[in-house]
RNA sequence: GCCGGCGUAGCUCAGUGGUAGAGCAACUGAUUCGUAAUCAGUAGGUCCCCAGUUCAAAUCUGGGCGCCGGCACCA
């Protein structure tokens, strides 16, 4: 007999050799029907596995949170079987579960077409209907390699070759087909059900390395029920509607065109939004003790060689040649330029920390395939700043920065922020003692700020550890925006020094930091987060005055003039159109407030206030409406 | 950069070798209307670019550019 412990602490005796299936049946028939796996001592295993004496076990059913990952991975296996049945000679590689679904990477000469996906999907249904049991086998390593090599599966053979010696080589069979797999799996293919869909084919490098062969990756999504699948597909459609590229056009904010790939043509409304953000940031930085500078766009390569960027990023830098054959580079970053300003004149420790900010316009020749709307462009503006400080100012500067960053994110409507702490990479500059100091200071600082953070080991910059700030948007997507980096290398390389209390020269620490990241990308994120319905302080047009009849034109102009005088960004719509039509148009344009005026309002000196998305209106005296709007539309800078 | 798909009116798309189309938007006229589409009419195209095949190319072939979905990259 063996004894296992259930999640509620209850103990259950079973005959030796009992499996998870036996346990589930032992507990109840209905549970056995829904059981798909076992969690034994915290590890997911097959239902068919023999339980060990004294183990803490939990029955995983199709409704358990853990089930989705199994479901998705199983679906990937079904996909692989379908593909190999339909396209003999195709090699399988790996096929994991991912968020919302799964993928499988295949090696095949001919590309899969959208039509192929339909055929594959049909075959998958058949395989699921066959309800073949997933059967685990453990193989000898060398035999497994031989087996896969004999089948021409060189990728699988390579995978086994590279598995650590300690690892058991497990194979899962489903009917005639089998795959190398760690497991676990659900009892049979039937459990995958019908709520799946193949989504797309894409290229992907073998083992994520661009020097390797390109495989074909088929993406799919799978859910417990048709209803969940439908909800997921609806969510995708909704996400598409808030795509910043689409809204940018619909709201007349910006456009992109071939002749300037990767650079943005800002239209009047988009530029108004941009300027609002810039003005807001300028206020916040000023309040936080920064001063603003502006540095050159074109800088001789000599400076980039000195900073080390020429070596590393030459391929991605735009250059221009002068008549006397000097090579200038369009600046890809601002740091070296800021050091030049710092180096002007002798600096005292009394001047530190020195917080130098720039809305730095940068150019990087990003790979063509990486461009994406206004989120990833070749010409962008960082809300950049460098804090020149002494080593023992790092902690306080970092804490102040975190406070500033969180407060700014909150003003933009982002309250869910995650922090990643990236420490020393294998290849790095600087003594370990300096790294110890930098990491400790940063760690103290992030602790002092009260922020939760996760470790990102080895992901720091080559010159120092960094914090990365990731914000979550309204539909749960994460965006990395802010950064805070401790740098001991660049000031040294570029010869920045200050005179300390001891009247000796010292090298300052340079703290690289950004909050928005880039204006362009951040605006893209804002648009998608708000689905275009920007908070009133950011909206390019805050208020539209719309008339119902032309008799109200004169009064509408008066309303409009008073709004302008009150500093509100207003528009006026005197067109001879029905009010329904105007309401619809301005709602689609996502203008936050409409002031509707007809004969009644003109006579009474009032306005009907209609807020975007709200059917009910409120009629207010004009002066009252304006003073309320003035407060509502105000930039959150505490003035 | 790599793999695949796509490129026709401002937008969404139809058109597969023989006269370039629809809906919406735009413009003009009429309509003066109370909170998400008034009616009628008009105009709008280098069918991404460059070569080639053909009597004839939006359509077929080759090259280029751009965009989209991924991968890789992201100081």
How would you sum up this structure in a few lines?
This protein has 639 residues and is of the alpha+beta class.
What report would you give on this structure?
35% of the residues lie in helices and 27% in strands. The protein contains 20 helices and 33 strands. An eight-stranded mixed β-sheet has the order 16-20-21-28-25-24-22-23. Strands 6, 7, 8, 12 and 13 form a five-stranded antiparallel β-sheet that branches. A hairpin with a 5-residue loop joins strand 1 and strand 2 (11-14). Helix 3 crosses helix 4, helix 8 packs across helix 16 (519-530) and helix 13 crosses helix 14. It is globular. 34% of the residues are buried. The mean pLDDT is 95. The structure holds one RNA strand of 75 nucleotides.
The best one-word shape is globular
Mean pLDDT: 95
Spans of at least 5 consecutive residues whose pLDDT stays below 50 are none
Ends distance: 76 Å
For the largest beta-sheet, the strand count, sense and barrel status come to: 8 strands, mixed
- Give the helix tally: 20
Secondary structure tally: strands:
33
Major β-sheet strand ordering: 16-20-21-28-25-24-22-23
Helicity level, as a percent range? 25-40%
What is the SS-derived class? alpha+beta
Determine the strand fraction and express it as a percent band. Answer: 25-35%
Provide the gyration radius in Å: 31 Å
């Amino acid at each position: 007999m063996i004894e296992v412990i259930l999640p509620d602490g209850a103990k259950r005796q079973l005959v030796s050799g009992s499996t998870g299936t036996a346990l589930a049946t032992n507990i109840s028939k209905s549970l056995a029907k829904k059981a798909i796996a076992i969690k034994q001592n915290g590890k997911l295993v097959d239902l068919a596995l023999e339980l060990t004496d004294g183990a803490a076990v939990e029955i995983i059913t199709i409704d358990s949170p853990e089930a989705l990952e199994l479901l998705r991975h199983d679906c990937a296996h079904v996909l692989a079987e379908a593909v190999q049945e339909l396209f003999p000679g195709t090699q399988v590689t790996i096929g994991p579960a991912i968020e919302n679904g799964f993928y499988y990477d295949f090696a095949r000469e001919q590309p899969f077409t959208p039509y192929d996906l339909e055929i594959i999907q049909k075959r998958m249904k058949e395989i699921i209907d066959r309800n073949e049991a997933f059967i685990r086998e453990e193989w000898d390593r060398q035999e497994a390699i031989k087996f896969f090599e004999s089948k021409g599966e060189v990728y699988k053979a390579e995978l086994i070759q590279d598995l650590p010696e300690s690892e058991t080589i497990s194979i899962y069979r489903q009917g005639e087909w089998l795959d190398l797999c760690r497991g676990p799996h659900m009892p049979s293919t039937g459990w995958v059900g019908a709520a799946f869909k193949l989504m797309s084919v894409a290229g992907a490098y073998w083992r994520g390395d661009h020097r390797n062969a390109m495989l074909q990756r088929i993406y799919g999504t799978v859910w417990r029920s048709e209803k969940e699948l439908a909800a997921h597909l609806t969510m995708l459609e909704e996400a598409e509607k808030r795509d910043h590229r689409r809204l940018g056009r619909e709201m007349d904010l910006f456009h992109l065109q071939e002749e300037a790939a990767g650079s943005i043509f800002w239209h009047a409304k988009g530029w108004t939004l941009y300027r609002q953000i810039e003005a807001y940031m300028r206020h916040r930085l000023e309040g936080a003790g920064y001063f603003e500078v502006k540095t050159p766009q074109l800088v001789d390569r000599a400076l980039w060689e000195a900073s080390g960027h020429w070596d590393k990023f030459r391929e991605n830098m735009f250059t221009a040649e002068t008549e006397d054959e000097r090579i200038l580079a369009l600046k890809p970053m601002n740091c070296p330029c800021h050091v030049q300003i710092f180096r002007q004149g002798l600096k005292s420790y009394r001047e530190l920390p020195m917080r130098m900010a720039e809305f730095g316009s940068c150019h990087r020749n990003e790979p063509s395939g990486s461009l994406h709307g206004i989120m990833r462009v070749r010409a962008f503006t960082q809300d950049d700043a460098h804090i020149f400080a002494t080593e023992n100012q790092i902690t306080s500067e970092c804490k102040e920065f975190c406070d500033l960053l969180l407060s700014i994110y909150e003003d933009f409507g982002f309250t869910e922020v995650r922090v990643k702490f990236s420490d020393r990479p294998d290849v790095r500059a600087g003594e370990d003692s300096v790294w110890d100091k930098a990491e400790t200071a940063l760690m103290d600082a992030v602790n002092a700020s009260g922020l939760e953070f996760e470790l990102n080991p080895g992901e720091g910059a080559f010159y120092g550890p960094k914090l990365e700030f990731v914000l979550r948007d309204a539909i749960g997507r994460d965006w990395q925006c802010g950064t805070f980096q401790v740098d001991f290398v660049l000031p040294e390389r570029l010869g920045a020094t200050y005179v300390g209390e001891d009247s000796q020269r010292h090298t300052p620490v340079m703290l690289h930091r950004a909050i928005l990241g880039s204006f362009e990308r951040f605006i893209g994120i804002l648009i998608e987060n708000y689905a275009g319905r920007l908070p009133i302080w950011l909206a390019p047009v805050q208020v539209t005055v719309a008339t119902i009849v032309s008799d109200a034109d004169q009064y509408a102009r008066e309303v409009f003039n008073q709004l302008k005088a009150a500093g509100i960004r207003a528009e006026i719509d005197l067109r001879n159109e029905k009010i329904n039509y105007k309401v619809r148009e301005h709602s689609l344009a996502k203008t936050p407030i409409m002031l509707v005026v007809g004969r009644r309002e003109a006579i009474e000196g009032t306005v009907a206030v209609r807020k975007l998305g709200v059917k009910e209106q409120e009629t207010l005296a004009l002066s009252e409406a304006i003073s309320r709007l003035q407060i509502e539309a105000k930039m959150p800078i505490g003035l």
